[in-house]
Amino acid sequence: QVRLVESGGGLVQPGGSLSLACAASGFRFKPYSMAWFRQAPGLERQFVLGITETDGTRYGDPAKGRFTITRDNAKNTVSLHMTRLKPEDTAVYYCAASEFGAITDRNSYNYWGQGTQVTVSS
Questions:
Q1: Sign of CA dihedral 81, 112, 24, 49
Q2: pLDDT (tens digit per residue) in 61-78
Q3: What is the distance of C-alpha 46 from the center of its chain?
Q4: Residue ranges of the chain with pLDDT lower than 50?
Q5: Distance from CA of residue 52 to its chain's centroid?
Q6: Secondary structure class of 21 (helix, strand, coil)
Q7: 78 with 34: CB under 8 angstroms?
Q8: Measured between alpha carbons, how far is 83 from 101 in angstroms, rounded to an integer?
Q9: What integer pLDDT is reported at residue 31 of this predicted model?
Q10: Cβ–Cβ contacts within 10 Å for residue 87, how many?
Q11: Computed over its alpha carbons, how large is the radius of gyration of the chain?
Q12: 74: exposed, middle or buried (Cβ count in 10 Å: 0-12, 13-18, 19+)
C-alpha cells in the first residue's frame, strides 16, 4: 500500500521557521520526483518546491529565497525547510510523488499525502 505521511506542521510566528517531513512507503522511492504543494482555503493547490531523482531542484514562486527541499533515498523521506514565514504561507502542505511528467504540474503526481496544516500568525 502506497503511503505518504507528512509531519511537522503547526503554528509559527511571522518571520519564523518550520520544517516539514514526508515519509514514503509502498513504492520504489528513488526514481520518483518528490514535491511539496500547498492549498489555502478557496485557492487552487499550488506547487511549492520539487526535487528530482538526481537532486535537481525546482522552485515555485512561494519558495524562492526562503524554502529548501531535501530528500533521503535511504530513508525514503523528503523534507521541506521553510524560513522567513509569512501569514500568506498559511495553508495545508501536501507531499507528492511523480514518476513521470513536469515536476511543477500537479497532474504529474501519482501519489499524495493527506496534508499537514501550517499556520503563520502572531
A1: negative
A2: 999 999 999 999 999 999
A3: 10
A4: none
A5: 13
A6: strand
A7: yes
A8: 29
A9: 94
A10: 11
A11: 13
A12: exposed
